[in-house]
Design brief:
By secondary structure, the chain is α+β, with helices and mostly antiparallel strands. The chain has four helices and 17 strands.
């Protein structure tokens, strides 16, 4: 019986270049497409794959080696106090300092609310699951008092709508009268709006917000009102939109990833 064709896999830290591990694996055990988002465990610690070279099993087999850049999940200890939220997004949007808030009517959100609920392309499902497990470790930590002793910082989905070409108008047309379109988005306490930011409030008072590249959605966050009035109908409309575009609804603090049916 022939021995399996082996590939040498080198795992390096994506930020420092440090070699974390080197191993030999059968070529057939590698995923066919190494460019898709994924998580793995190294030295019993969860890591997310940032990139792979080559990006295919066939390329790795041909070369006989594979380099994988990874980044460990990040959890920050909270000194002398307890955090109100178990997780925050690492990548915050820039502000447009050429504009001021007196230039229009802007939706206001707190920085900690940024991308706590959002729609994400289904291709990131594995990465989402890894992030949720890291958040679970925070929420199931030592009890006592209110809040959390640590915060999980999310790095895994910097481009949540990658691979999608969805215009803002396609979102707005799902809601009666297109919802209320603000002139942009800003954070509590800031003097300038978010660069490329948008916000729409639906009749049921869902706030849909995020980032645009031209008219294309790059980030689509959601802030839900207390259940009342037309909110439930608007949630159904949002879920229908998500289903049509193969998006998952993710509630990070609630440790939920939902596939609309």
């Amino acid at each position: 019986m022939e021995s399996p064709e082996m590939v040498q896999v080198t795992f390096r830290h994506a930020d420092t270049g440090e070699t974390i591990a080197v191993t030999q694996v059968p070529a057939e055990s590698l995923p066919e497409d190494l460019s898709v988002p994924m998580n793995l465990s190294l030295n019993e610690e969860p890591h997310m794959v940032v990139s792979a070279n080559p990006t295919t099993r066939a390329g790795a087999r041909l070369r006989g080696e594979l380099e994988v850049l990874v980044r460990p999940f990040e959890t920050l200890a909270v000194p002398d106090t307890r955090a109100a939220l178990p997780t925050v997004e690492n990548q915050m949007p820039a502000l447009d300092e050429s504009r001021t808030l007196d230039a229009g009517e802007f939706a206001l959100i707190h920085e900690d609310d940024w991308r706590q609920m959002e729609l994400i392309a289904e291709e990131f499902e594995t990465v989402i699951a890894g992030e949720i497990e890291a958040i679970r470790a925070v929420t199931e930590g030592p009890e006592g008092g209110t809040g959390f002793e640590a915060i999980h910082v999310r790095h895994g989905v910097p481009n949540p709508l990658a691979g999608r070409e969805i215009a803002l108008d396609r979102l707005r047309e799902r809601f009666p009268r297109g919802g209320r379109l603000f002139d942009g988005l800003t954070f509590d306490g800031e003097a300038h709006p978010v660069a490329g930011g948008f916000a729409v409030q639906t009749p049921g008072r869902l706030l849909l917000y995020g980032l645009l590249a031209g008219e294309r959605l790059e980030v689509l966050g959601v802030i839900l009102p207390p259940p009342a009035g037309e909110a439930n109908a608007d949630v159904e409309r949002l879920f229908a939109f998500a289903k049509d575009h193969r998006l998952l609804f993710v509630n990070w603090c609630g440790r939920q990833s939902l596939r609309p049916m």
